[in-house]
């Protein structure tokens, strides 16, 4: 089992042992000391999404075989498993401040479902999208989430109300992300980022930036925890770091392997200084945000196929990687 209960990580890039130990700066040297400590082989199919609670204690993963599994990040164990055989499941996210979740449906219809995990029952259904939901992003500070779909719309939802609170049409299947304040969100399209104020999302964006094409199609976008940067992910061999204020393209991230053209989901470190992404053959690659240079690359004996999702724990020195199973790794100080 993993026991990281006495090592926490702060937004300033340091770790601190609760027992009074010295602070440790996260840097290229100790980020290179990543050690896989536990592998879970319980999904029996490709993991299609992962999410973690704000306190870092619980991770959840959904899979293509209709399973939703909760992991205790402190004990290094599975705490619950539920199935959505009728509807399928993807894009699973925690409801802020709870252990309840929302997830998209991949069978029957395009409804987003609110699932209580104790007891296990559906609480609410968010209906409106006419085609497959491809992205869900939860506000970091309100009971609000955004969804995007192959019907080329974005919808704004209140967790407590079934009907959408707003809808926006887009030219392509949209990518979306909230900034850390929850007041601004970005919409990614064909080599374009549009910035919106959530309070006036139904008017034109307050800023628009266009970029040269990358290797591969854009597949996701996310803000860094400090709100200074945006990361554009692709199904190719390049990603892009963008200045979130000026819109300037700062660095292309290259060197990871993605010959199978998977839509890889990458993650910032909690201090925002580093980016990690998986790839073919179980390889994990890390870069410096400031320079765009690779600082880490290593294969995995636990992952033999593509690592398509990476999540950095916001409070503990852990990385979770997923392919057809989930591996928890510890960063050794």
UniProtKB/TrEMBL annotation:
It holds the Pfam family WD40. SMART domains: WD40. The keyword Repeat applies. GO terms for molecular function: chromatin binding. WD repeats lie at residues 126-160. Its main location: nucleus. Keywords: Nucleus, Repeat, WD repeat. One of its GO terms (biological process) is RNA metabolic process. SUPFAM superfamilies: WD40 repeat-like (SSF50978). GO terms for cellular component: Set1C/COMPASS complex. Gene3D superfamilies: YVTN repeat-like/Quinoprotein amine dehydrogenase. It is found in: Nucleus. Belongs to the WD repeat SWD2 family. PANTHER family: WD REPEAT-CONTAINING PROTEIN 82, WD40 REPEAT PROTEIN SWD2. This is WD_REPEATS_REGION domain-containing protein. It comes from Bursaphelenchus okinawaensis. The lineage of its organism: Eukaryota, Metazoa, Ecdysozoa, Nematoda, Chromadorea.
């Amino acid at each position: 089992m993993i026991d990281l209960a006495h090592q926490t990580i702060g937004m300033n890039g340091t770790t601190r042992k609760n027992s009074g130990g010295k602070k440790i700066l996260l840097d290229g040297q100790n980020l290179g000391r990543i050690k896989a400590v536990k592998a879970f082989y319980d999904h029996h199919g490709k993991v299609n999404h992962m999410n973690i609670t704000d306190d870092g204690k619980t991770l959840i993963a959904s899979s293509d075989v209709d399973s939703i599994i909760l992991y205790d990040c402190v004990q290094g164990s599975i705490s619950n498993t539920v199935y959505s055989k009728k509807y399928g499941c993807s894009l699973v996210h925690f409801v802020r401040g709870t252990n309840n979740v929302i997830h998209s449906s991949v069978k029957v219809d395009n409804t987003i479902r609110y699932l209580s995990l104790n007891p296990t029952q559906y609480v609410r259904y968010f209906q409106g999208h006419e085609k497959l939901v491809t992205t869900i992003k939860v506000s970091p500070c309100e009971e609000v989430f955004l969804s995007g779909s192959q019907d080329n719309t974005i919808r704004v939802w209140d967790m407590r109300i079934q009907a959408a609170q707003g809808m926006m049409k887009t030219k392509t299947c949209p990518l979306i992300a909230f900034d850390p304040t929850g007041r601004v969100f970005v919409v990614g399209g064909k080599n374009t980022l549009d910035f919106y104020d959530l309070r006036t999302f139904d008017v034109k964006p307050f800023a628009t930036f266009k970029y040269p094409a990358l290797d591969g199609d854009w597949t996701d976008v996310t803000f860094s925890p400090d709100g200074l940067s945006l990361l554009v992910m692709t199904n190719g061999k390049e990603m892009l770091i963008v200045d979130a204020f000026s819109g300037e393209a700062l660095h292309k991230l290259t060197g990871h392997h993605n010959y199978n053209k998977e839509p890889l989901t990458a993650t910032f470190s909690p201090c925002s200084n580093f980016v990690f992404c998986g790839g073919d053959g179980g390889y994990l690659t890390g870069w410096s945000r400031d320079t765009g240079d690779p600082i880490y690359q290593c294969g995995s004996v636990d992952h033999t196929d593509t690592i398509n999702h990476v999540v950095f724990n916001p409070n503990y020195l852990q990385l979770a990687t997923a392919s057809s199973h989930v591996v928890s790794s510890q960063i050794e100080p």
